[in-house]
Queue: 4 jobs
Job 1
Amino acid sequence: MTSIEHEVLDALRELNEAAAQGARSGPKPDFQGLFGRLDALTVRLEGPEHQKLRHFLERKSYEPARLYLEGVPEARCLCRR
């Protein structure tokens, strides 16, 4: 896994945790900041080796992107091409 892929996976895991935390009472997570960070990372993904990951992130399919980076083979986007 490349360093950019590690960064994306860390951000996706933070988003997943923030979503779980958002369902609980207390201060709300900074979703805007997380989405902005993921958008910035998406722009940095270059080359054909990142095509599938870029597809997930550009379509805001964050759960499939996380599963893909974690090596789940059936991770796929639910969007329409």
Job 2
Amino acid sequence: MFKGKQLFDVMQRALKFSNGKEMMELGSQGMDVPDIPYKVAGDYFKSLGFTHTAIDLDGRHGSMVLDLTVPLTDFYNKYDIVTNFGTSEHVENQFACFENVHYFCKDNGIMIHSVPLPDNWIKHCKYHYPPAFFDLLGSACGYEICENQSFNMEGGGSKRGLVNVIFRKKGSGDFISKNNFAELPMSIGEYKTNHNNRF
């Protein structure tokens, strides 16, 4: 769920780093932002002139039913902006998910991640990311780190912390190896597999 002014502001800052209009969104994101009339994030982005593509196993909001745990090579090097607002933490194969994000993005494109911090969003998802995960991923992949900040999501009490990262992809290099990716700090927690894991 693309929810609240804080996430909206992250997105608005990220959009300033790109002049392109091709967007890939991980997840079929609903939208709930004060003073914004759209209830589906894709509709909002289309209103800004973006060509919008979304991937989600649930197929909601017109998303393509595709699996991020395998290489989705048909979509490589096509997008100026790739967003991950609360999707990667539910994907079982973390390496494949982040590899897809890397290759979806065009050279000089923007990647945006807003995902749970460790010890937050208890039982919401399996994977949680400290800010250092993205610092090290960015360094290993040669990304420009435009922003890496954390906050507690408004309106939900404690333990709803998110790390919010904006990367610029520099060059056309390969993604890091599975072994190098496995060394990045990440937390794995208990989660409910039978509930609606949306924000």
Job 3
Amino acid sequence: MRWIILLVLFLARMTMSFQFQSVASAAPFLTSELGLSYAEVGTLIGTYLVPGTVLAIPSGLLQARFGEKRVCASGLLLMAIGGVALGLSDNYLLALLGRVVSGAGAVLLNLVIAKMVADWFVGHEISFAMAIVAVSWGVGISVGLMTQGKIASGLGLNGLMYVVALSCVLALTLVLIIYKAPPSANQPHIAGPHLPSSIFPEFRIAIACLVAGAIWGLFNAGLVNFFSFTPEYLTARGLTSIESTFFTSTALWISILAVPVSGYLVHLVKKPDFAICLFSALTGLTLVLLAVVPSAALISCVMAGVLMAPPIGAILALPARVTPVAQRAGAIGLFYSCYYVVATIGPTIAGALRDVTGDAATPVLFGATLFIIVPIIIVPFWSLTRYATLRD
């Protein structure tokens, strides 16, 4: 049953990245039909993640109050409503409002799916399962890249947003029909108006979850920097725009294939923390090679796609490994609250460094630095969870 549940949650989370990508895919239509500037389009893209900075911890409280399935369904419903609102928009402010609504739903969905997968797979193949769920983000973006431009050309901007909203409704239907909580997580939810602090782990483990969120934020900021700034860097070093995009997308597709395989291998060898440290550092060093030796760009991108895969599932499993079921929603809320802050700030710093230095290689090197910092940041996590029961 847990593999059927995992497939449903994979598809549900894939709709999130499919919706995230829709604004970027529709950028030419947003500028021509709504008259938006590219700065406004960029704001619409980033706005999707902003609600996470304030909704991550309340999401854990909502899960404890109403249950995971209701929160998951609510997240998908908000995503659908936001998608329809964006389709109906005829100006920037309405489009921004629709994006905020859908982004809020995406936050609820992202966090509750992490809790659902943890409930079903703790004590089993959790690193592998988390890796499978993580790769849904890349799959959704890839599907969006391949289809959304054509949909917008055929159905228009409004039609694209309605198709995206429909995908959220279909995922909502699957969750409502198929998902059920595992027996180990069948605890009565709190019915009163006040929620006790017991849904959060003890102070030491709570800090550890924040540290784990910082690790995930640094890792993702490194990924975003790589996929966002590498094409420009390679073009500046003499490659054509087609070659630059191809090399970068090659790393994306390799990582999509490598994440579940490496996640399963990490589960088999029972060394998740070792995988986080080793492969994060190697990914950083590979990006240094990319920045220093642009002639080896294809080799560097292929290596990066392979090396960035193993830590993903292991990092996502960190808070679930050290918290019991009753505290897992609060722990994951803490984890993602820190993640959203770090992941939002990282690319902003990279862009600022690019403006200051005027060198296209600077963001790539900054991304490499973020990956290399990960093995250092995990040390306090070990110290804080030294006496916690690790379950993988």
Job 4
Amino acid sequence: MKIKKYLISILGLNAKDLQKKPKIYDALYLLHSSQKRLLKKFIEENLDSSKKITILDVGCGNRPYEDLFTPYAKRYIGNDFNGRPGVDIISSAENIDLPNESCDVVLLLQTLEHVNDPLKVLIETQRLLTKGGRVFITIPACFCYHPGIDKYIPGKDAMNPIYPDYWRWTQAGIRKLINENFSYEKIDIQSIGGFFQCFGLQFAFLLVESLKNVNKYLCYLVMFTIVPLINLASICLDKIFGRWNKLWSPYTVFLGYAVVLKK
């Protein structure tokens, strides 16, 4: 058991490590790498290290991106529905115990698909945001059903998930939700992944998860040989057929979207 934990540690196979430092052999690399790249772009374009700010991470999990905000943060607040390490405020995302206009940046990273009422969460986000503050959202579009479960077993139902998975969006759907309910000064939507990355990720993820229940060594072999090839091929094919990946072109398919809102 100690050897297994050591290998997991040095190979960076912990969930937090794979989000913080995406690895090409990660079955979710195409999502993790795109999300981190867009998050770094958001920071570069919107934050100034000379001005310390308050950042709220809604649905923070294990706070994988906190280090990116360290040069800018006066306070980094983690919110989630459970009391795991790193959660400062235990509550639903619809009702967070903080004063009005108390947060300069609000992060909703792969969170909105899991909440009971996305509109109420966005209303709560606007309440908490300072004037001129920013919201950074990532949401899924073409992505597998992923309720919170301890272990995925192919063909088995997750009868009592730790948390649900409710919602998916299109680029038009998220813009409609925001435009009809809010008056943000700026709305910017960017795609995550493209046609080939959508199917590459699903294939790599289900392949790895299925093999975990067959033979862990075979699973590791596939992770370090086949999964990197799937990831690289998916990225290359999306670049070659870039015309299929224009945000507002009909028949496009994306892993998800990154949305920036300015109050």
